[in-house]
Sequence to fold (368 residues):
Amino acid sequence: MSGFVPAPLAALPWRVLLLVAGIGGFGLIVLYSAAGGSLTPWVVPQGARFLVFLAGSVVLSRVPLDWWKRSAFWIYAVILVLLVLVELLGAVRGGSQRWLGFGPLRIQPSELMKLAIVLACARFYALLPATETRRFAALWPAAVLIGLPALIVMAQPDLGTGLMICAGGATVMFLAGIPLRLFVGGALAAAVAIPVAFEYVLHDYQRHRVLIFLDPESDPLGSGYHISQSKIAIGSGGIFGKGFLNGTQSHLDYLPEGHTDFVFATMAEEWGLAGGAFLIIAFLLVIRWGVNVGVRAEDRFAKLAAAGLATTMFFYMAINLMMVMGLAPVVGIPLPLVSFGGSAQMTVLISLGILMGIDRSSKLRQRW
Fold:
């Protein structure tokens, strides 16, 4: 292949790229069906963004690992400033203030913080001597790094993204060697704080989502409507689905947000368990590759960053699937590469680019 294809392209993990392209392509097919067999209004912009971000991930794969290492805290600081600017200047959509506009470009800094928190925590523990990781000094700086953006994001309000920021940072802390007893203590403290947060911190609609999650049939035509219709769509698909363009829940508008948060239900109704298994297995293979990138890396920062980024992809998939199946409250986490929208798509493909860069750096070091 090296005789026909430039060496940098030949060195790319093409199996992973083909898997990602397969997920994205299948997502476009689902969006085409959700639009009633039309390329507009979702397929064309989604496909264009996917190609741009996928090309960008290939470009990012050429960024040296040392640059990410040196820039981790700066990236975190810039995105933290953007989160503050969202509070001051951000656009309000759907009752939430999450976006910054720069002319025709709109960005959601909280999505980028999911990556920045992983890089910043990985950099902190890479700088920390291994003998210090079991002391309190290894805990509180990372807790501050995680807590500041998480609190800002939850105030927007965006509970789902805030929890994902906490989960990404906590994953890096765990993998860095923070003692399990500290996590158990944190879990107990969270259990004590949950009733207080439920009563005084969560907004009314967030409290209602939690109650509906516990008993969706209590308001089947109101707040429980999303979950109830999603379960009907997934269950009615059976093993092989009703067939392409033959879904009724989405085409008859029974399923709300069938092209964004509940796109998996739209897909499962037409493609059944077989389509769902394809998506889940494809995602897990990509995540498995990301974890293996961290295992193969010799640099501590690379190990922690790769594992944290792969886990962030897993959280996206797992939380969305649990949400649409009624196993978790509806927190607005999309299914990346499949749900319509550019924020989650951008986050996952940037993660892919960084992972490919870490993999390339590890191979160069081993060869040297």
Observations:
- Residues 66-202 form one domain.
- Residues 263-296 form the longest helix (34 residues).
